[in-house]
Write a structure and sequence with these properties.
By secondary structure, the chain is an alpha+beta fold. The protein contains 2 helices and 5 strands. Bound molecules: adenosine monophosphate.
Length: 104
């Protein structure tokens, strides 16, 4: 998707070290962290928001949750939050689904 920051990071047009990458999603550190650990898990597929998910996308979201769990386990986080901001009124600023993994 043209002019989408997360599509550009996916394609390497915006450099950002990937903490994880597979055929379904990737993970990067948030550029403006709100917690000691603040990682974004982002699907390769451009989907506007959770509100705009289509049939079959739930498998992808489940995969993202598993990757977040694995990243947290690797970092030995004792607890964390997984957050989706949904649409403008839910605080979403970038309209390509992403899950925040937050831990202090
Ligand atoms: P949201 O409000 O849920 O749409 O969150 C968007 C998040 O993306 C914010 O926490 C931003 O700090 C983060 N962000 C914006 N641009 C970048 C970037 N180039 N690399 C990593 N994180 C970014």
């Amino acid at each position: 998707m043209e002019d989408c920051v997360f599509c550009k990071i996916r394609d390497g047009e915006i450099p950002s070290p990937k903490l994880h990458e597979d055929e379904h999603c990737y993970a990067v550190n948030d550029i403006n962290p709100k917690a000691k650990t603040h990682i974004l898990i982002i699907p390769n597929k451009h989907i506007h928001s959770i509100a705009k998910m289509e049939k079959g996308d739930e498998t992808l979201i489940g995969h993202m949750v598993k990757i977040a769990r694995d990243l947290a386990a690797e970092r030995e986080l004792r607890g964390y939050k997984l957050v989706f901001n949904v649409e403008k009124h839910g605080g979403q600023e970038i309209f390509h689904i992403h899950m925040h993994l937050l831990s202090d």
